[in-house]
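User: Please run a holo structure prediction.
Assistant: Happy to. Please share the sequence and the ligand.
User: Here you go; the ligand is nicotinamide-adenine-dinucleotide.
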Amino acid sequence: MNVATGRRLGVGLISAGWMGRLHSRAYRAIPDKYADLEVTPDLVIVADPDLANASAAQRQFGYRQSTADYREVLAHADVEAVSICAPNYLHREFALAAAAAGKPFWIEKPMGISAAQAADVVAAAESAGLVTGVGFTYRHAPAVEYAKTLIAQGAIGRITNVHCKLNADYSADPRGARTWRFELGKAGTGVLGDLLSHGFDLAQYLVGSPVGAVSALTETFIKERPAPGAGTGHNAAVADDAPMLPVENEDYAALLVRFGCGAAGTFEATRVGVGSRCDYGISVHGTAGVIGWNFERMNEVEICSGPFARDYGYTREMSDHRFGDFARFQPGAGMGLSFDDLKTIEGARFVRSVVSGTQVAASVADALATSRIASAAIESVSSGRWVTVPEPTGKTTFDL
Ligand SMILES: NC(=O)c1ccc[n+]([C@@H]2O[C@H](COP(=O)([O-])OP(=O)(O)OC[C@H]3O[C@@H](n4cnc5c(N)ncnc54)[C@H](O)[C@@H]3O)[C@@H](O)[C@H]2O)c1
């Protein structure tokens, strides 16, 4: 554990899967990377119904206690802030309980299995007057922050159109387990929530304007998968004789959109894209240039802007101290950050929100905004028509 500096902030963790472990690592890194915050997260208690997993996380990260019951986390007197890293169908219950306990929470996307559930979370958090954080991990990547600054300064002129893709291969193997992610009742949507929630937030963050209308199609390419054995999430084992179960949500989605500011956009996502590892990219095109970023090369940005834009096309800039929080992690240009570092940036924004009382992290209202786009996409798939997305409500931060 890092040497304690400044104020202690008691933290509780609900669910110690992939994300729960990553939140824990982020809390531990904060006193080092964000010493000026003068906050030392104190890892108090972790809950997971898989008790072996909870106590392994306790040992690994130095939580003082572990339990199977999330209510013990919320009731603990030393817990001042909570991470909610459960599968989607538990988000609403846990978030409402955290709000009732008056504890600010950092919750994973997509925040529930539907826009209605996300709206309940926003209502509970905002009526309790809580700051929140949401796992929109890509919006604060230093290269994305740099792109946002350039776009806001007018470097690409008026935004005309946006292209966003989230093509992954994490479920490309048809023998991959049919975990909670493939069940309607546990995940809600497929790629619309799991991947495109990130893309919707990223696009709205860079454009500074909400998606206002959607026309969509979806496909499920792999119709059934073997039941999961031991383990959790993407690492669940599969026995040779495991029964096959239906895949209940979409493997693929494609959307045409119109942003509130008038810009056009396209989004595409797959979780079964053979060859696409984490091909999560966005390009924002304007009347005077274009800026592109891709998570697979997250420490650089491609820019075409300035007086010679039409002559030279894209140039590549590597991350340096001008890029968001880069200098907190690396001293020299071109030295890379990792996915875990992005989670530390996200966690530091949540902690800063908690100790300052000012919402500087992505908020539950931002998550609701992305859920409403997903919901409009589903409606469009069934009606075959364009669907209007309701205006964002609540304390959004993508447009600040
Ligand atoms: N921000 C990101 O980039 C990102 C990446 C991956 C996942 N996620 C999100 O994080 C969440 C968790 O995903 P994951 O990949 O960590 O899942 P996971 O399957 O690895 O872990 C889920 C954990 O929840 C626990 N759990 C199940 N029931 C519970 C209960 N009743 N109470 C408490 N814990 C319970 C499981 O035992 C498991 O340890 C999902 O909402 C997912 O969409 C976000």
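The CA atoms of residues 211 and 317 lie 28 Å apart.
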